[in-house]
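Bench log, entry 3. Co-assembly request; chain sequences pasted below exactly as received.
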Amino acid sequence: MTESIKIENLNIGYTSSKSKKTVASNLNANLNKGEMTCLLGPNGTGKSTLIKSICGFLKPISGLISINQKNSTTLDEKDMAKLIAIVLTDKLTLTNATVYELVAYGRSPYTDFLGRLSDNDKQVVEQSIAMCGISHKKHSLLSALSDGERQKATIAKALAQDTPIIILDEPTAFLDLPARVEIMQLLRRLASDTQKSVLMSTHDLDLALQMSDQLWLLQKNALIYGTPEDLVLENAFQPMFNNGSIEFDNKTGLFKVAYNHNTTIAVKGHGFKYTLLRRALMRKGIKPVKATSTDNTYIKINENSDIHFEIWMDNEPILKTNKVADTIKLTQNIIPLVTKNEVRCMI
Amino acid sequence: MNNFSQSIKSNTSINFIISIALVIVLFLLNLIFGSISIPLKSVFQVFSGAATDNIVFTNILLHTRLPQALVALGAGVALSIAGLLMQTLFRNPLAGPSVLGISSGASLGVGFVVLVAGGLFGFSMSSLGIVGEFAILIAAFGGSLGILSIILLIARKTNGTLSVLIMGVMIGYLSSSLVGMMKFYSLEEDVHTYVIWGLGSFSRLSLPRAQFFLLLTLIPSFICVFMAKWLNLLSMGDNYARSLGLKIERARFITILLSGILTATVTAFCGPIVFIGMAVPHMAKMISKTSNHLILIINTAILGAATALLCSLIARLPGFDSALPINSVTAFIGAPVVISVILKRRKDNLPEN
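Structure output for the full assembly:
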């Protein structure tokens, strides 16, 4: 068996004595061993609800969650503690706790009634801290750590719990880009080195596309899962961005912000400088088009010169500059002129 | 690496030894000092059963100072542990034994017996002597256990700790308003009796009752040591605790029950003692430098005993004609501790913000 979690026809939500509030329904998915899976979905589709349901904090309204081939509703807290370790968005505020103490609490399902660590427990704690690369901070107070280090300590706690599955709710939410990449690389490595299943919810679409083995895309009435590449081929991301402000870039295989444009400018040249210029122009609502021989106003890109950009009008360069900003500024000024010319031509 | 954890361990045991020594010294000082000083030699003579020529010393020691010191010891341990349990359960540094409304329940019970019963039946409680004292004890126990069962019922019904906290505080307001009404319509001497009860005292019990009280507080306190693992998990928050295999509802129920019994016992015998339960856990956390409740509980118990003995000693310092009310002393010591903890915490947090 390669899957550690199997979800079948799952409806999740909140039930009280009077009412039932379904958050997402008809969900099917598998979580594989030794792989990192990212759970993606717009705000409000129920990522946290799904995670809570899998962890056993919420009873599913209907459907089945199998964890290592066992129906989750038959498992109590103690069984679950040996199957799933979690990292939550709640900030851990343990007064006076060191990294070592936090990670040691991860051994709770295995320690005696006073919570004392055996030699084996101590070894697991040391290993978990080392695997997360924070051995040098072992005896630091949690309150003295950076956000990234604290997140690693929490992951080490989950590792020490020695479960086949680790679930993380937005572990990268408060981190800067290098720290996010680092945490995701760490999780990837843990998944493949220890053959654990790692499921994390995230909003980092780009990082998830590049780094996860599987994606779970949560939508109102479906959970689509597969490798990121397959999902791109199936155009599965489109419903996530139905307001059209984000579009998929076929060249890079990543997402980019879509802009509306109301004017165009002719551009001669290509390459990296063109990409940058294009991005800056699009931000201002100007779309670059390929210059033809009939254009008498255009931007020229010099590939092998320090004067990167030139603006030509009526066969004369009116600007030579190495700054994108200057080019954009002048372009914005001459565009009404160009447009007027075009209108005159049409008459 | 091992040296480090060993040095932590030896630090912990040094702390234990120092604070236990402190408790013993304070206990002896409590026996020695008072309106008249008794030499240490006589103290040992009385307790070793050796013949003493001074019958006055024997009387003072056995009838006043020893019971008072024992009660202070028991009350200090019980209230401090109850406070630590509440601070951990509610994850709130301002929580204490009184947040559950249990001491308010006791006040309500006592208020009812002292203020209303007297008015209804046309006699004053203070004129009843030993029967009256017993009635107050029963009333305080009844009131606090009544509130405790309401709180436990709420804790069962709701699945959040916050609602329990709010209920406790609200019950506190309700009962103090009821007591206010009762006071308004009561005889002056009954109000006086009630006020005296409310000031708290370690000196209401005879030696046999003091020993009984000590047993009654130390047994549940000892049981709390075995809650250490649960408390460690609870301090991480409900979700983490559950994910590490803790049955939250059961742990919460037992924590409230134990803390409630400890508070109810102390309040019934000594009146509502303020601040010890809130301040001592902070001292223990500051000294222990760990989040592990196994060490925290033991340190809290020892420091609780030391603090209560110190307060009891200060209340009877030579120079005062009679003893000060214990609550005015506990607040005097407790408030600066809490303030310094809050200030220190702010200072510690500054660099990282």
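Chain B has one domain: 2-352. The interface with chain A takes residues 1, 4-5, 91, 93, 226, 228-229, 232-233, 235-237, 239-240, 242-248, 285, 288-292, 294, 348-349, 352 of chain B (CB under 8 Å).
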